Amino acid sequence: MAEESDAVEQQAERVSTEEDKMSEEEKLFVLPGDLVGTTEEFTAGKGTYVDVGDIHSIGTGYVHIDRKARVISVVPKTATPPELCEGDIVIGGITNLRDSVVLVDIGGIKGKGDREFQMNGPAAIHVSNVRDSYVKNLGQEFAMSDIVKAKVINTQNMRLSTSEKSLGVMKAYCSKCRTALELDGNRLKCPACGRTEKRKISSDYGTGIF
Ligand code: ZN
Protein backbone atom coordinates (compact mmCIF):
# COMPACT_ATOMS: atom_id res chain seq x y z
CA MET A 1 0.00 0.00 0.00
CA ALA A 2 1.32 3.45 -0.93
CA GLU A 3 2.21 6.01 1.73
CA GLU A 4 -0.27 8.65 0.46
CA SER A 5 -3.30 6.42 0.56
CA ASP A 6 -2.23 5.25 4.01
CA ALA A 7 -2.37 8.83 5.28
CA VAL A 8 -5.79 9.49 3.75
CA GLU A 9 -7.36 6.37 5.11
CA GLN A 10 -5.55 6.33 8.40
CA GLN A 11 -8.22 8.06 10.47
CA ALA A 12 -11.30 6.66 8.84
CA GLU A 13 -10.07 3.09 8.72
CA ARG A 14 -7.53 2.86 11.44
CA VAL A 15 -8.25 -0.72 12.31
CA SER A 16 -8.19 -2.06 8.79
CA THR A 17 -4.97 -0.18 8.04
CA GLU A 18 -3.35 -1.92 10.96
CA GLU A 19 -4.45 -5.22 9.54
CA ASP A 20 -3.09 -4.32 6.10
CA LYS A 21 0.27 -3.48 7.62
CA MET A 22 0.29 -6.79 9.42
CA SER A 23 -0.47 -8.83 6.33
CA GLU A 24 2.21 -7.02 4.33
CA GLU A 25 4.81 -7.90 6.92
CA GLU A 26 3.75 -11.52 6.79
CA LYS A 27 4.47 -11.51 3.09
CA LEU A 28 8.20 -10.95 3.60
CA PHE A 29 9.47 -14.24 2.28
CA VAL A 30 12.65 -15.80 3.68
CA LEU A 31 14.77 -18.84 3.01
CA PRO A 32 16.59 -21.13 5.46
CA GLY A 33 19.39 -19.23 7.19
CA ASP A 34 18.13 -15.76 6.14
CA LEU A 35 18.66 -12.98 8.65
CA VAL A 36 15.29 -11.79 9.97
CA GLY A 37 16.29 -9.58 12.88
CA THR A 38 18.52 -9.14 15.89
CA THR A 39 18.07 -10.05 19.52
CA GLU A 40 18.36 -6.34 20.36
CA GLU A 41 15.09 -5.73 18.53
CA PHE A 42 13.21 -8.98 19.02
CA THR A 43 12.86 -12.22 20.86
CA ALA A 44 13.42 -15.19 18.56
CA GLY A 45 10.11 -16.98 18.08
CA LYS A 46 8.98 -20.13 16.27
CA GLY A 47 10.84 -21.05 13.11
CA THR A 48 13.95 -19.04 13.99
CA TYR A 49 17.31 -19.54 15.62
CA VAL A 50 19.82 -17.18 17.18
CA ASP A 51 23.43 -16.96 16.10
CA VAL A 52 25.57 -14.40 17.94
CA GLY A 53 22.77 -11.88 18.37
CA ASP A 54 21.32 -12.39 14.91
CA ILE A 55 17.97 -14.08 14.39
CA HIS A 56 17.78 -16.35 11.34
CA SER A 57 15.00 -18.32 9.74
CA ILE A 58 15.16 -22.09 10.17
CA GLY A 59 13.08 -22.83 7.10
CA THR A 60 11.24 -21.33 4.16
CA GLY A 61 8.39 -19.06 5.04
CA TYR A 62 7.00 -15.64 5.86
CA VAL A 63 8.24 -13.33 8.59
CA HIS A 64 5.72 -12.56 11.28
CA ILE A 65 6.27 -9.84 13.87
CA ASP A 66 4.31 -9.64 17.08
CA ARG A 67 4.89 -5.99 17.96
CA LYS A 68 3.37 -6.15 21.43
CA ALA A 69 5.47 -9.07 22.56
CA ARG A 70 8.39 -8.06 20.29
CA VAL A 71 8.63 -11.59 19.04
CA ILE A 72 9.74 -12.35 15.50
CA SER A 73 8.89 -15.69 13.99
CA VAL A 74 8.78 -17.39 10.60
CA VAL A 75 5.53 -18.99 9.51
CA PRO A 76 6.16 -22.00 7.24
CA LYS A 77 5.56 -21.40 3.54
CA THR A 78 2.45 -23.49 3.57
CA ALA A 79 0.15 -22.12 6.27
CA THR A 80 -1.90 -25.28 5.96
CA PRO A 81 0.08 -28.52 5.69
CA PRO A 82 0.41 -29.91 2.19
CA GLU A 83 -2.49 -32.18 1.64
CA LEU A 84 -1.78 -35.88 1.64
CA CYS A 85 -3.18 -37.79 -1.28
CA GLU A 86 -3.72 -41.49 -1.71
CA GLY A 87 -0.64 -42.90 -3.40
CA ASP A 88 1.74 -40.39 -1.81
CA ILE A 89 4.98 -41.85 -0.47
CA VAL A 90 5.80 -40.62 3.02
CA ILE A 91 8.65 -41.06 5.44
CA GLY A 92 8.24 -41.15 9.19
CA GLY A 93 9.22 -42.62 12.50
CA ILE A 94 7.54 -45.42 14.41
CA THR A 95 6.17 -43.98 17.64
CA ASN A 96 3.90 -46.72 18.89
CA LEU A 97 3.52 -50.47 18.46
CA ARG A 98 0.23 -52.18 19.18
CA ASP A 99 -1.15 -55.64 18.51
CA SER A 100 -2.61 -54.93 15.09
CA VAL A 101 -1.26 -51.51 14.19
CA VAL A 102 1.88 -49.38 14.37
CA LEU A 103 1.72 -45.60 14.54
CA VAL A 104 3.92 -43.42 12.37
CA ASP A 105 4.78 -39.76 12.82
CA ILE A 106 5.09 -38.54 9.26
CA GLY A 107 8.11 -36.30 8.67
CA GLY A 108 7.85 -35.71 4.95
CA ILE A 109 6.04 -36.38 1.71
CA LYS A 110 8.01 -37.42 -1.32
CA GLY A 111 8.13 -34.63 -3.88
CA LYS A 112 6.49 -32.09 -1.59
CA GLY A 113 9.46 -31.28 0.61
CA ASP A 114 9.75 -32.28 4.23
CA ARG A 115 10.71 -29.06 5.90
CA GLU A 116 7.35 -27.39 6.21
CA PHE A 117 5.29 -30.50 6.67
CA GLN A 118 3.19 -30.84 9.81
CA MET A 119 0.63 -33.40 10.89
CA ASN A 120 -2.07 -33.21 13.51
CA GLY A 121 -1.76 -36.82 14.48
CA PRO A 122 0.03 -40.02 13.58
CA ALA A 123 -0.76 -42.27 10.66
CA ALA A 124 -1.20 -46.00 11.07
CA ILE A 125 0.02 -49.14 9.38
CA HIS A 126 -2.40 -51.98 9.99
CA VAL A 127 -1.02 -55.49 10.27
CA SER A 128 -2.82 -56.39 7.03
CA ASN A 129 -0.94 -53.69 5.08
CA VAL A 130 2.62 -54.48 6.16
CA ARG A 131 3.43 -57.11 3.54
CA ASP A 132 1.68 -58.67 0.58
CA SER A 133 1.75 -61.87 2.62
CA TYR A 134 0.27 -62.71 6.03
CA VAL A 135 1.85 -61.08 9.05
CA LYS A 136 1.32 -62.62 12.45
CA ASN A 137 3.48 -60.56 14.75
CA LEU A 138 4.03 -56.84 14.16
CA GLY A 139 6.95 -56.94 16.58
CA GLN A 140 8.86 -58.90 13.92
CA GLU A 141 8.28 -56.17 11.32
CA PHE A 142 8.85 -52.86 13.10
CA ALA A 143 10.36 -51.48 16.28
CA MET A 144 10.16 -48.17 18.07
CA SER A 145 12.18 -45.36 16.43
CA ASP A 146 12.47 -47.17 13.10
CA ILE A 147 12.37 -44.85 10.11
CA VAL A 148 9.90 -46.16 7.54
CA LYS A 149 8.92 -45.34 3.99
CA ALA A 150 5.26 -46.01 3.31
CA LYS A 151 2.46 -45.32 0.87
CA VAL A 152 -0.72 -43.47 1.81
CA ILE A 153 -3.64 -45.80 1.05
CA ASN A 154 -6.43 -44.01 2.89
CA THR A 155 -6.52 -40.31 3.78
CA GLN A 156 -9.78 -40.56 5.76
CA ASN A 157 -8.27 -42.54 8.61
CA MET A 158 -4.63 -41.97 7.65
CA ARG A 159 -3.72 -45.51 6.76
CA LEU A 160 -0.35 -46.40 5.29
CA SER A 161 0.98 -49.48 3.56
CA THR A 162 4.49 -50.92 3.32
CA SER A 163 3.62 -53.95 1.21
CA GLU A 164 5.65 -52.93 -1.85
CA LYS A 165 9.31 -53.93 -2.13
CA SER A 166 10.71 -50.42 -1.90
CA LEU A 167 8.58 -49.69 1.16
CA GLY A 168 9.27 -50.55 4.76
CA VAL A 169 12.01 -49.86 7.27
CA MET A 170 14.72 -47.49 5.96
CA LYS A 171 16.74 -47.25 9.13
CA ALA A 172 16.61 -49.20 12.38
CA TYR A 173 18.52 -49.37 15.62
CA CYS A 174 19.70 -52.33 17.66
CA SER A 175 17.18 -52.96 20.43
CA LYS A 176 20.02 -53.89 22.75
CA CYS A 177 22.73 -51.26 22.16
CA ARG A 178 20.96 -48.68 19.89
CA THR A 179 23.61 -48.90 17.16
CA ALA A 180 22.28 -48.43 13.61
CA LEU A 181 21.61 -51.87 12.14
CA GLU A 182 23.17 -52.97 8.87
CA LEU A 183 21.67 -55.08 6.14
CA ASP A 184 22.72 -58.73 6.35
CA GLY A 185 20.88 -60.83 3.78
CA ASN A 186 17.19 -60.51 4.54
CA ARG A 187 17.85 -59.53 8.13
CA LEU A 188 19.47 -56.66 9.96
CA LYS A 189 22.61 -57.07 11.97
CA CYS A 190 24.16 -54.91 14.66
CA PRO A 191 27.79 -54.12 13.79
CA ALA A 192 28.51 -53.45 17.47
CA CYS A 193 27.04 -56.36 19.40
CA GLY A 194 26.29 -58.82 16.59
CA ARG A 195 22.59 -59.09 17.37
CA THR A 196 20.34 -59.85 14.38
CA GLU A 197 16.82 -58.46 14.08
CA LYS A 198 13.89 -58.91 11.73
CA ARG A 199 12.02 -56.12 10.02
CA LYS A 200 9.83 -55.43 7.00
CA ILE A 201 12.88 -54.01 5.25
CA SER A 202 12.65 -51.57 2.35
CA SER A 203 14.75 -52.49 -0.69
CA ASP A 204 16.26 -49.01 -0.17
CA TYR A 205 17.34 -49.80 3.41
CA GLY A 206 20.39 -47.83 4.47
CA THR A 207 20.67 -45.99 1.15
CA GLY A 208 18.90 -42.87 2.34
CA ILE A 209 16.93 -42.90 -0.93
CA PHE A 210 13.53 -41.45 -0.30
ZN1 ZN B 1 23.70 -53.95 19.14
Short descriptors:
10% helix; binds zinc ion; single chain; mainly beta; four-stranded mixed sheet; OB fold (Dihydrolipoamide Acetyltransferase, E2P); five-stranded mixed β-barrel; elongated; 210 residues; 2 domains
Fold and architecture overview:
The chain contains two helices and 16 strands. The chain is 10% helix and 35% strand. Mean pLDDT is 82; it is low at 7-26. Strands 8-9-10-12-11 form a five-stranded mixed β-barrel. A four-stranded mixed sheet has the order 1-6-7-3. A three-stranded antiparallel sheet has the order 2-5-4, with no helix packed on it. It has two domains: 2-75, RNA polymerase II/Efflux pump adaptor protein, barrel-sandwich hybrid domain (OB fold (Dihydrolipoamide Acetyltransferase, E2P)), CATH 2.40.50; 89-170, Nucleic acid-binding proteins (OB fold (Dihydrolipoamide Acetyltransferase, E2P), Beta Barrel), CATH 2.40.50.140. The longest helix is centred in the N-terminal third of the chain and has 13 residues, at 14-26. The chain has helices at 3-10, 14-26; strands spanning 29-30, 35-38, 43-44, 48-51, 54-57, 61-66, 71-76, 89-97, 101-109, 123-126, 147-154, 159-161, 168-171, 182-184, 187-189, 196-197. The two termini are 44 Å apart. With 210 residues, the protein is mainly beta. Bound molecules: zinc ion.
The largest pleated sheet is described as: 5 strands, mixed, barrel
Q: Which fold name fills CATH's third level, the topology of the largest domain?
A: OB fold (Dihydrolipoamide Acetyltransferase, E2P)
Widest β-sheet, arrangement of strands = 8-9-10-12-11
Contiguous low-pLDDT stretches (5 residues minimum) are 7-26
Order of helices and strands: HHEEEEEEEEEEEEEEEE
User: Structural class from helices and strands?
Assistant: mainly beta
| Cα gyration radius (Å) | 23 Å
The fourth-level CATH homologous superfamily of the largest domain is Nucleic acid-binding proteins
The overall pLDDT average reads: 82
Looking at the overall shape, the CATH architecture of the largest domain is Beta Barrel
